[in-house]
Design goal:
Blueprint lengths: L9 H4 L5 E2 L22 E6 L14 E7 L3 E7 L16 E7 L3 E9 L2 E8 L4 E7 L3 H13 L8 H9 L8 H5 L3 H13 L4 E6 L2 E3 L5 H13 L2 E3 L2 E5 L3 E6 L4 E3 L7 E7 L5 E6 L6 E8 L2 E8 L3 H13 L2
Antiparallel strand pairs: 1-2, 2-3, 3-4, 4-5, 6-7, 6-15, 7-8, 9-12, 10-11, 11-14, 12-13, 13-15, 16-17, 17-18
Length: 325
Amino acid sequence: MANPERPVSEYDRFGPWIDRVETEADVPRLFRPHGVDLAAARLVLKVPRNVARRDASPDMDLYDHLLVLGRDSLTVLSRRGRDLPRGAQPGAGGGYDHADIPLARIVAVRDTVNLLEGWLSIATDDGGELTMRFNGSARASVGLLTGALRAEFVRWGRGSVGRTLADAAPPGAVSLAALDAGGDLALGADLREVSAAHPDVRAWACHARARVAPGGTGMRGALRRVSHALSPMVAQGCVLAGDSVALEVLGRHEALVRGSTPVHSASRLTVALGAVDGVDAAAHPDYPDVTVIALRAGAWSAPLAVPRESAVAAILTRAAAASRT
């Protein structure tokens, strides 16, 4: 029987999940020299290393990141790419890197999960992007951070391009029947999860996955079309949603995926509506039935590849036309 008075070590706690840090004992030993003020922090999360439990040992630094959400900034402490030597003082010799991201500059947050491979990206209006890896089973904890950062998007107000995007959306909620019919039921579930956390979010448009044919003329074009008959390019399903604060784009880890096998990955891109200052639209260079939309916020941009005739493309291309006037 376990001794209830025995302290629980970092090694004992270790697993693939992202944990909240609420006491000094919860702070990974590598990051303790930084002196995190837990009383002043609104949310603190520790992100574990991508190492199997059976390969972990008590002398290893077991966490890659410590995320500290303060009043005006997000502090990110990141373990450098090696363990500290045995006997070294944790944090000595620069065992971790330190970044402070002003909340007023964050324009987008994206988390992507493909099987157990997860990635979180936090983008700023100067074009900077901090990206970190996490275990896909911990996506719910990542959602806590996304929600907290999303709340800060009110700092951006409502810019003219963001208003154009919102005004281009239909006045009522969009039916997701097309997703269900196309076998993209998981996207509807993702939208319901976002709406549960943010009740004002509603679907603006959606499209189910659809095959798209390559362009090209002559022998080269013919060969490409033959190869695609065996392994088609599929534009994955997507939901465009939002409220007065943020634009939500729900989809898969890649918008265009070759093959007939269903894709079960998930992606959520959350963009500050007031920070969007431009929308560009262009034809895809290889697939004429695909439009590539670029959302811009300062020096940051994100391309979205969507079927040209889809409702999602219609809203975004209208916003693109309006942003040029």
